[in-house]
Design a protein that fits this description.
It holds the Pfam family SSF. Belongs to the sodium:solute symporter (SSF) (TC 2.A.21) family. It is a multi-pass membrane protein. This protein is mostly helical and about 425 residues long. The chain has one domain (about 1-100, about 115-355): Hydantoin permease (Orthogonal Bundle), CATH 1.10.4160. The chain is built from 18 helices and no strands.
Amino acid sequence: MEPLVVLLGLGAPAAYALMRARGIGQADFLATARRTSMALTLAGVICGNIGIGTFVALFLFTAESPVLGYTVALSYAAGLLLCAALAGRIHAASRATGTYGLVDYLAAAHGLGSSLPIWAPVAVAFALRSIVQLMALGLILELSLGLAPGIALAIAGLAVGLYTAIGGYRVALETDLAQALIILAGMALAALGLFADTPPGVAGPAFFDLGPRGLPFLIAAALFLPFSAVLAVDNWQRIATATSAGTARRAYLLGAAICTPVYLLLARLGQVAANGGASGMAEALGAFRALMPPGLPVLADLVVMMAVMSSIDTFVMPLMTGLSRTRWGMGRIRLAVAGVFAVLTLVALGIGDALTGVIAAFNTLVVFLPAVLGALVLGDRAPRAAMLSMGLGVAATLALGALALDLAALAGFLLAAGLYAALRRRA
């Protein structure tokens, strides 16, 4: 039964994409149309913000340090509220510049002739997040189908790349409805299993013990993680393509109310699992499977699959909106999307630690904050400041991550902010 459920979960989005392919034009494929309803926007908020990166981060951070894990959980929730608060400004700014994605907005707002200097650092950050998603999906296929790790990862990349290349952003949104329901149903089962089997007192690290992480990382998580939701290309595009700013605002407020208990549940699961020596994605998945009803651990696999597939597509497609300004036909655009997934899969084969990937993605994301706030709040038009603060900021955080991963976010942000402030004055 388990292989059949996994194969159905893997193949269903591709089957739906094939059914919808002929009815999807370029505007819907690339998300360059403002027609996303409240239901689809809310489903996207849930799916995009309960991804496997969130799952792994909350589980493993809390297993290492409860105070860090719960801080991350509340910071994620605050990020959704921040998206709701800024929905009106983001929606209006997107309309004013005639853009839909974060990359295109920053290029237009700062007066850049080409979006490539902005696209490159953003693509690096979201490639890291997407690679973690692929690694999780590959692990599920490896365990449930008995495949070798490399083969499982290749199949994962092929499956997600196939339905995304066929259906684009519109199919990614439409499949979110069913995927969100599966994710929330699975989390409800996990909550029942966790609180039925867990004694009131949980051993493990002391609540305020930071474990292997330092105080700078805790500060960075509290300060910057809420902004990471606004800086996420999928959240930005979800707000920009909603039928109205009010639609986006209501979706994020309701999404925060739905997602916050899930974040706290995942943090609690990591705290309970600390005694088992949770240290990686396999342990996180194993603990989640143990909470499912007797004889049905495959339900956990299905939930995690939906969390992966429902978020990775909306990470990649917002990076492709620039293709709407080319003369490429749909066939060539679909090949470009498939090529992106092929590159992500190849890189994923060389990465072994999911938590390191999550931290690196967060570290690179925070360096975009000066350029985004400069355009969105201050009305800056500073092309050199935007592209150099983002490009050099990403390069610096990746280099610092190899030396002091927990300090990279704070150091990278300070570097990006300093560069932006200095160059902005000369613009």
